[in-house]
Amino acid sequence: MEYRKEVSVRGGAGGDGCVSFRREKYVPFGGPDGGDGGDGGSVIVVASSDVGDLSFMRRRSELRAGDGGRGRGWRKKGKNGEDLTVQVPAGTRVLCGTGPGLETELADLNVAGQKIVVARGGRGGPGNVRFATSVNQAPEVAGPGEAGEERYVLLELRPATDICIIGKPNSGKSTLLSAITGARPEVASYPFTTREPVVGIIPGDRDVFVVAEIPGLVAGAHLGKGLGNAFLRHAERTGVLMLLLDGTSPTIVDDLSELRREIEEYGCGLEGKPRIVAVNKLDLPEAQENVAMIRAELEAQGVSVFCVSASGGRGVPELVERAKEMAGQSGQAEQTDSTGQMAVFRPRPKK
Predict the structure, then answer these.
(1) Domain range list for the chain
(2) Does the pLDDT value for residue 192 go beyond 80?
(3) Fold that domain 161-332 belongs to in CATH
(4) Which CATH code fits 4-157?
(5) Which of 175, 196, 216, 223 is deepest in the core (most CB within 10 A)?
(6) Is the model's pLDDT at 342 over the cut of 60?
(7) Number of helices (H) and strands (E), helices first, in the chain?
């Protein structure tokens, strides 16, 4: 799956104006009748619910709209260039710049149907009929068409989710995601098996809940270390953060502190989101020996802890129910931006 794509976009060039003179029988002196050139097409990005990710852009490095046609005689305007419409998933941010690395946000297309023109086409050039005056009744000049806008555009998908699983490498995030949803992420005993966000669905009686797992965080992730903050941004549109800890880790309390610190340092609204803490691998003897100490120490800090075995299913239903309850409460809060449009959460689809 592709979540980030940089591409060059270019609006179509306007067509040149035409130099033409009337040659009509019984019409004395004739006169200029060159038509204007057609306008160039624009590149338009539109959010759609029919697209899941940006994989369709994998082999495309340039998006270019059609050029306008040249004007013709008899004051005929040239044909307008065709617009190029690109469908992207809802939740895609559109950033632009005049070169790689220069990014300014143009739009946040988080609702299907929203669209933005990222490169406008150039206007067609005027025909010679436009240059006729009382002292120059037979102009032999026409205007050239304007060039279309050209820029770099970065498409960045940040899908809206209800629950986001965050943890250190090899804490069992993929196993938990596969246990509570129909997703099938790669599961292995080595760290960083997840290298891009994975999304799954928890069905409900009336609503469905979208769950995402992001790659493991390491110290300094908010600065780009490890797999970096490129994936923390996928938690910005979530309702609840589920912090998953490895129950066999001898430094589990420090692990939780580290996760908290990375979230706080990253900011962007993550620091204020509701959180739930789960200790995984309860099926292993090392975790069973530590569970009492872990629970007591974390609850002394005011942290409510769920002890689970993602591989065996122990404690998972209770964890899921609590997470769904918190996500439902979080989703009820109206999250709007300065334009009054939905900015973070989108209505959950019915089952």
Answers:
(1) 4-157, 161-332
(2) no
(3) Rossmann fold (3.40.50)
(4) 2.70.210.12
(5) 216
(6) no
(7) 4, 14
